[in-house]
Amino acid sequence: MKFRNPFQSATDRLISKEVEHKLYEKASIDIENGSIDRGVMTKAFSNAQGDEVKQKAIYIELMVEHYKDEIRAGEELAKVLATEADKAKERQRQEEILRQERAEEEREAREEAERIRIRDEQWARDAPQREIQDEKDIKMAWLGILLIFIFAFITIAVLINIQ
Fold it and tell me: Crossing angle, helix 10-32 and helix 52-162, to 10 degrees?
């Protein structure tokens, strides 16, 4: 007993029946044209227990099932191929993301190198000014040290004179 798929619409059932009718027609035409699958015919003969009238009917049923199996196999193959195509698309998408990430990293590296180059050039341009400032700082430091010595000398002299 065959169970009806409760999720299959009336349209889908009609299409399935139409396809099934075409498969019976194909089996009949194949018999008329002499295009017979000897293995299936032998199985039909065995199932018919030697009755040639039943043999032809069983052969047609077996061939329709065979055609349905081929259709299902084709659909499964199409799904597998679609899945493989989806996987290929996903790989391509991932590769594109990686290319974009690498390009972004390279752009950032170039920008950082440019910032460093500009900083170094500014440092080089400012070197004479820094040297002048360094010389002034050194002179001020020596002046400070000199003042400390003078103050210390005066303090020692005053302390000596006080005694």
Answer: 130
Query: What global pTM score does this model have?
Result: 0.44
Q: Domain residues for 107?
A: 10-162
What is the number of domains present in the chain?
1
Its sign, for the CA torsion 70, 76, 80, 82, is: positive
Does residue 125 lie within any of the structural domains? yes
Q: Give residue-wise pLDDT tens across range 17-32.
A: 888 888 888 888 988 9
Neighbours of 159 (CB within 10 A): 9
Q: How far apart are CA 78 and CA 13, in angstroms?
A: 22
